Amino acid sequence: MAAGVTCSFSSAVFFLLLLNCILFVSTNVDEVIDDGDENDRALGPSGYMKREYSAIKPFVGGTSMQFWEMKGDSLLTDDYIRLTPDQQSKSGAVWNTLPVMVRDWEVHVHFKVQGQNTRFFGDGFAFWYTKDRSELGPVFGAKDYHDGLSIFFDTYANQNGEHSHEHPYISAQINNGTTHYDHDKDGTHSALAGCTAHFRGVDAETHVAIRYLGSRKRLTVQHDMDDENKWAECFDRYGVELPTGYFLGFSSQTGDLSDNHDLISVKFYELASNDAEDDPAQYLNIQPKADGAEPERDHSEDDKVYTRKDRALNWFLGIVLVLIAIALLGFFYYQKMQRDNMKRFY
Ligand SMILES: [Ca+2]
């Protein structure tokens, strides 16, 4: 009988350990990060700045900027472009008026997102490289079903339940005009890649570098959230196809929650291309697409994420199993004692 007791107890312990392992793996599997190639991080532009696609101080004129068009509630001060003020239900944008006739480029954006409220704020802003200079719309202040590249700087998690990542979150979408941006799910289903970056409400100056090498079909986003002049990788993807001739823009929207969304500077660099002799005009008709980015994934249910409630339930079940194991152990021990006593009598 003692062997049977040991066996039951060992099985219960093994089962509990197995359960813990399964829970641990399923809650941490999304946190695996690819470190990337260290030698590839020297992002600094090897080309030269193109003033016509850049927005740098002084912002002459107060209300207008050469080569840029202001829309909605955006406004220009001496020191920054404010896409939205820290007020509810505002939409603003700024669009460059010249099509980008550069195949390999890099944009450095110095920006600031901050507001009065330290707990509730939103919604973030977006960078665009799109076929049209969008009218104001519901996707961070621009139209849905865009054609081209978008980079979202999302400060508010709209999705019910937890994400497998924290906000603020930077993510990219490549769209040929057919994919919807699902704001309620923070675009999770249509994102090409992304990263968490704590750019909101921080004292340090915050920067992002967006590099697109058309000649290598490569899109890289890096950020400097500590103003240390060092880029940290957000993501690096090959197989990204974008045409020349699209427009650069930034937009933002506030709803019930708000923030100041400000651009301090936008610097556009033309990079030395692998195909320096190429005429950018021959790439005007490329359809935006990205390897590994499915057109649109199933929206029927959220990805399984473990909420606090799930974890509490798991703990509860674990404790119940331990109590059952102890009760069984006690029961078998009691039976053994009974039998030993019987043997003594007969
Ligand atoms: Ca959001």
Provide an overview of this structure.
It is found in: Endomembrane system; Golgi apparatus membrane. It is a single-pass type I membrane protein; Single-pass membrane protein. Keywords: Disulfide bond, Glycoprotein, Golgi apparatus, Lectin, Membrane, Metal-binding, Signal, Transmembrane, Transmembrane helix. InterPro entries: ConA-like_dom_sf, Intracellular_Lectin-GPT, Lectin_leg. GO terms for molecular function: D-mannose binding; metal ion binding. By secondary structure, this protein is α+β, with helices and mostly antiparallel strands. It has a domain of 235 residues: Jelly Rolls, CATH 2.60.120. The chain is 19% helix and 29% strand. It is built from two helices and 17 strands. Strands 1, 3, 4, 6, 11, 12, 13 and 16 form an eight-stranded antiparallel sheet that branches. Strands 2-5-15-7-8-9-10 form a seven-stranded antiparallel sheet, with no helix packed on it. A hairpin with a 7-residue loop joins strand 12 and strand 13. Helix 1 runs antiparallel to helix 2. The longest helix has 38 residues. Calcium ion (CA) binds next to loops.
List keywords for this structure.
346 residues; alpha+beta; 2 helices; 19% helix; elongated; disordered N terminus; binds calcium ion
Describe, in short, the structure shown:
The chain is 19% helix and 29% strand.
